């Protein structure tokens, strides 16, 4: 690992490279001969990225640098939302008795707002798993509702909602509960509240919890309860800066909250009596709060840029009637007494402002790390041409399980091949019998062969189904594997593949690799090709 100090490296490896569950079962050896990396912490590459051409690395904060604990944080969002539904929007008080299973919903699901259904689909938008509230739809109902290919390209707003951030897990669960509740107690939900209306209420109430202090005040009081501590964030930021890259933060959170969360992540807790410490700013060149992503990524959108005075949180208008006159020029630094090591803090603005602040010449020199396909990754890559890395915390467990279940998965593939083979033989035999060119003795033999094949086929089909169900449930009891739907990539996986140049389970995995690494994707394979290494 070139370019990293020994202390930084030690701190990174202590956390990052420990075996999971005490088993060093799936260690990946770097082809560069550098180090072994636990498979759950690897950075996976969809599109070549040479870190040498990256001059600035940017980070989203919430659910990227700050990993919230869903069991406490999303529960808080859930409880706050229920209270708003009951006290502000007229939903019955019995909702207050409900409880939240934070592990039930997963990212990548799609809510059918009108029908009250929750769907998991593959990359062709074929709906493979469908629930109405918490009741699984029968295959017939599923096909009748979603089987029409013409319908398939319309799984989008406004009739559908995508559960594509971890922030959405609570609202998806509450939506399912409300659908069940309305079906069983039609008179108890507010008049005119159809499923879509209920979804709208839930969405608005969740959003309000994020904006009115319901959540943030609680997190500020006790960050440790809601956010995972991560001692490898500072070494990672140091490593990037030591390697000569500029670092920046672009978050939709406002300054006061950003400061609390970043203090916590960088090891400065309010209990140390330094709630207003700004030491963490030394790890960044620019911090943009209240960025209003994804709009931030469009530089044609005029958004005022304000500089933030860190101590008071006051905003200073940098526009002064001549937008960007000061921002673009290094000689015109604002005379802020609290400026730390050149790090400047802003609110609002757009990507054009950021590029000028960092003297970015080409957008392909920027790597941005985020957790939200739509909010962080899709727009920044598609609109702007930034290089992107998606943080998918679910991946760590998923790849561990893929490894653990390798024998079962192999078995599944074999059963699938066997099933296809038997089906082909059956068709062949049936066809020969139909053609009528065989004598009676041969026909009799063929009939008995057909019987044998049909019962064998049924046996294989059942074994395959059973193994598939077991495998599915090991990943998630209801929705199965995040990145797969049956044998196809899930819709979520398809989006990861299309929009994220890199993806990994945790942002700090960046520091397990050289900051100058050339990330290269594995070879693409079409069904007619074969992996040369597997023969
Ligand atoms: N947030 C909302 N409404 C939501 C979900 C999240 O306002 O429905 C807020 C979070 O509370 C956080 C910000 O302040 O958006 C996420 O910012 P980022 O760091 O991911 O950009």
From TrEMBL:
Binding note for cofactor: Binds 1 Mg(2+) ion per subunit.
Which GO terms fall under molecular function for this chain's record? 5'-nucleotidase activity; metal ion binding
Give the binding site residues for Mg(2+): 60, 371
| Highest taxon above the source species | Eukaryota
Instruction: Kindly list the cofactors needed.
Output: Mg(2+)
List the catalytic residues. Answer: 60, 62
Annotated binding of GMP, by residue: 62
Which protein family is it in?
Belongs to the 5'(3')-deoxyribonucleotidase family.
In its UniProt entry, what is this protein called?
Answer: Cytosolic purine 5-nucleotidase
Organism whose genome encodes this protein: Solanum tuberosum
**Gene that produces this protein:** LOC102592072
